[in-house]
Amino acid sequence: MAEAHQAVNFMPSLTSDRGEVELSGPMWQEIYLSGLRSWKRHLLRFWNDFLTGVFPATPLSWLFLFSAIQLAWFLQLDPSLGLMEKIKELLPDWGGQHHRLRGVLAAALFASCLWGALIFTLHVALRLLLSYHGWLLEPHEAMSSTTKTWLVCEGTHIPCTHDTVLWSLSADLFAEGLAKLLRLAWNSLLQPIVLLLQGSLSSQVSDWWEEFVYLRSRNSLMVNSNYYMMDFLYVTPTPLQAARAGNAVHALLLYRRRLNRQEIPPNLLMGMRPLCSAQYEKIFNTTRVPGVQKDYIRHLQDSRHVAVFHRGRFFRVGTHSQNGLLSPRALEQQFQRILDDPSPPCPQRLLWMPMPTLCWSAGATTGESALGNKTLHPRPGQPLDPGLRTPYPVESVVFSNGKLGLSVEHSWADCPISGHMWEFTLATECFQLGYSADGHCKGRPDPTLPQPQRLQWDLPEQVHLSISLALRGAETLSSNVDCHVFPFSHFGKSFIKRCHLSPDSFVQMALQLAHFRDRGQFCLTYESAMTRLFLEGRTETVRSCTREACDFVRAMEDQEKTDPQCLALFRVAVEKHQALLKAAMCGQGVDRHLFALYIVSRFLHKSPEGAGVHSEQWPLSTSQIPVQQTHLFDVHNYPDYVSSGGGFGPAGDHGYGVSYIFMGDDMITFHISSKKSSTKTDSHRHSHRLGQHIEDALLDVASLFQAGQRLKRRRRGPGDEDSGHRRGFISNKTVDSKAPRTSTPADPFQ
């Protein structure tokens, strides 16, 4: 019914007896303001698109070139070699008094053509430079001159699938069958078709990846696809739920405004190479619309409200006034009104099921056009409403104790995109916006604001049973997942870099050692690598369980091997992992190539030779959450204000999901998930046991180096129980956002 309610204010009434159209004053005002916003937005984007199109030149460079040509003309020099005279002849003859004007116009046209030709030449040169990926394979101390000449601009080169490195298969302990499959594909008609289709697509089979892996998947998004991000590790800026929500939403709106104005610079790889920013377009105003056979991504150009879910009720909260964005204090006032609203929830909560027409027929306009979703939880530690399948890619969650979190739907973009937004949100709401001494948002409430609009859902009776069944299944799924979060504070990336190693490769090899001690065997390991060096690139798979990694793990578990021998094997394993990671980032990975071959085989109704490959389980799924804006956090003066990162569910029923984030120089935070129903990870203690193995493995590997000799080695065999060492969790401590503190984290769910 929310759609009809909105139409009352903005649509003409056609109920007059004379059939005349009655246009209300508020409607004309809304039409005027909407048109004004639209023109402002289009003009701003036109200017930004122009600046992007002429990059690395600027409009000032055209003016300089035009002035130089005019000066040369005044000195009776012709830099155009006669072209400006020919241009003058083509211009209309306005009489002798306009002769000088014709000269100026001819100079302006010549300057524009010359300027455009120079820009085109620069674009071609930059694309050629940015298509070169050999710099990733070069050691830092011996960088080539070609790499040093790189300029910062967007690259759009499409990697060719025939560049796939076959040695990445031979490096994987479980890849014997993959090599045979790839050779069969090369000898079939599939390979030329893949080359042709990939050349016509944007890059890295991103369109197919979104369509078949995400939108056509009929599995539950919860646990299987969605991922989460968490609050500061040790502190909570305010204990007031509405205040935290007000500042967080205002910070998100500031980020969206910067995004709309195209003021967010692209991330640079190693400070040189820009990464594709296409995924940022769908952070806001985007919804995943459920369907029977597949879902759909719907993106709107503008939205001026958020959807809020609290105690089984949906509310529509406006985010703008006639003066612009609502202040944090005004937003806090609106959220507090929702918290104080005594109205009961609907008898049946809105859930997704394979009947989207019934579920989304009422209120779809208001719900789907929201810029994002805000969930206010009644008490800390209570999990998200397990039956709610929110249509918003990004859902922020605010607990009653002021803790903040983020739940993200995966189809529209990958973790670094939402992570970039989350870093900005945490830093802005805490350090820039801040809170008053009593914990409220700064500023004053606005009593003239209308009450938040309660959304009512009109659901037919026949769907109630399906809702109950969906809720029961969602509750079973959520209660089956165990999540263990702990900070490792013995050392961090500064120690690893002093050892002249990659922090990511260091942790990946330690994870192989930890998993072997936990399960007594090696397993197929998935690590996500970004491919945003290419236009619209998303991810590629790094198969971290290489033969070199296995040799290192066996040496660590062999009492007869010395530390120097283990260290030598460790360096070889790290070098192999780095080579695989760089190859994946350069478009030379194997898994997306095999994925494209499989899709083409299905289109051609051929035998799906890759079905066995794509049905393989990943007992260990890993990912690093990158910290992209270190300048926003002062970890030296405010060491407690570090994010605890985020995580995801296990990829298999008998596997682990492990994510990690390097916070500052001396801490690594891990998130480990597993399923309680598994016979191999069937208890609450097993993911904690793996956490202990990870800590021991990191210390054991560090002790191989001279700088880490002080760290005691502790060898553990498969199935050893947790030693009872102190485990850290996110705390509920509320502190002044400007006062640095150091504390021992505590479990917020107790």
Automatic annotation (TrEMBL):
Composition-biased stretches (Polar residues): 740-750
Catalytic site positions: 410 (proton acceptor)
Record membrane topology: Multi-pass membrane protein
Localization terms from the record: Membrane
Pfam families named in the record: Carn_acyltransf, CPT_N
Biological processes per GO annotation: carnitine metabolic process; fatty acid beta-oxidation
Principal location class: membrane
Region (Disordered): 709-750
The protein, known as: Carnitine palmitoyltransferase 1C
Organism this protein belongs to: Spermophilus dauricus (Daurian ground squirrel)
